[in-house]
Amino acid sequence: MSVRELVVLGTASQVPTRHRNHNGYLLRWDGEGILFDPGEGTQRQMLRAGVAAHDLNRICVTHFHGDHSLGLAGVIQRINLDKVPHEITAHYPRSGQRFFDRLRYATAYRETVGITEAPIDTDGPLARTGGYTLEARKLSHPVESYGYRIVEPDGRRMLPERLAAHGIKGPDVGRIQREGELGGVSLDDVSETRRGQRFAFVMDTRLCDGVYALAEGCDLLVIESTFLDEDEELAVEHGHLTAAQAARVARDAGVRHLVLTHFSQRYTDPEEFERQARAAGYDGELTVARDLLRVPVPKRR
Fold first, then answer.
1. Whole-angstrom Cα distance, residue 176 to residue 196?
2. CA–CA distance, 275 with 154 (Å, rounded to integer)
3. Quick check: 176 and 182 in contact, CB under 8 A?
4. Strand partners, 158
5. Catalytic residue from among 37, 67, 204, 219
6. b/e per residue, 221-244, with b = 16+ CB within 10 A?
7. N or C: which end of the chain has fewer CB within 10 A?
8. CB-CB contact of 79 with 110 (8 Å)
9. CB count in 10 Å sphere of residue 134
10. Angle at the Cα of 99 (from 20 to 102), degrees rounded to 5?
11. What is the CA 11 to chain-centroid distance, rounded?
12. Phi, psi at residue 7, to the nearest 5°?
């Protein structure tokens, strides 16, 4: 049975707290695992969440600030220690190649696994598989930063009443799906487009075109909300979003489920992020992330 869910490994910004680890997010997408922004402590959080190195197929780093990348060294070494039997691809900004190299070879270890380095230097598709296209968009932060978006190809939803009206049943249903036509009846006559699911991961950034492009039409949007409204000037100065800004993006982009994360240590009441997001006009499903939380991707429309 396919599983599509977000496993939250850490939700702190800049420094961890007693209750929040540095960043780390695993997206389970059917049989694949995509690890986003492994900050310090990610390897231990994976253990606590029941995530194994064998579950990983891709690592996606938005930028090379420590809270988003210091865990790379441990994760990569664990991948090699466990002798993961498949190749793993790492995506990250090309401008941070020197940081990736330092983290990949931070200490001595035995390399047993092929890690394909796939640095990013422009917007657009990064990879296409049978189940999704992985895309990147540049964000606005003091160091080069990219957000990621996963788009499932559109499919077809068979309509039982139309199949019955045309007398199509049993093995013929599969046949018309494969061949696109049966006895003068087209696939369009008995089905409709089933929109593919969409997921986006948006970390450290000011408001910019890339944020909106990533969020557009998402079923699940994971987005930073480092600051609250009263500190909006700080957010702009340091290249971050407030909870209200993130919520307005989600509202305008038609996001179905909004996950707020990456919280500044200065705030002690996580419920205030939800209150400000609701006050900004977002009325979809809303989660204020906490460590080790699991968030399912919403079912198809």
1. 21
2. 35
3. yes
4. 191
5. 67
6. bbbbbbbbeebeeebbebbbbbbb
7. N
8. no
9. 21
10. 100
11. 14
12. -110, 115
Tokens of 180: 């696109």
pLDDT for 108 = 97
| Residue 67 known to be catalytic | yes
Beta bridge partners of 148: 136, 201
| Cβ atoms of 93 and 126 closer than 8 Å | no
Task: Give residue-wise pLDDT tens across range 227-262.
Answer: 999 999 999 999 999 999 999 999 999 999 999 999
Q: Are strands 185-186 and 181-182 parallel, antiparallel or unpaired?
A: antiparallel
**CA 22, CA 37: separation in Å to the nearest integer?**
9
Tokens 């961890």 identify what position? 16
Task: Tell me the pLDDT tens digit for each residue of 44-81.
Answer: 999 999 999 999 999 999 999 999 999 999 999 999 99
pLDDT digits (tens, 9 = 90+) for 173-186: 999 999 999 989 99
SS3 state of residue 171: helix
Contact 62, 45 (CB under 8 A): no
- Enclosing H/E stretch for 27: strand 24-29
Query: Contact 65/89 with Cβ under 8 angstroms?
Result: no
β-bridge partners, 33? 28
Q: What is the pLDDT of residue 301?
A: 77
Gap between the Cα atoms of 36 and 240, Å rounded: 18
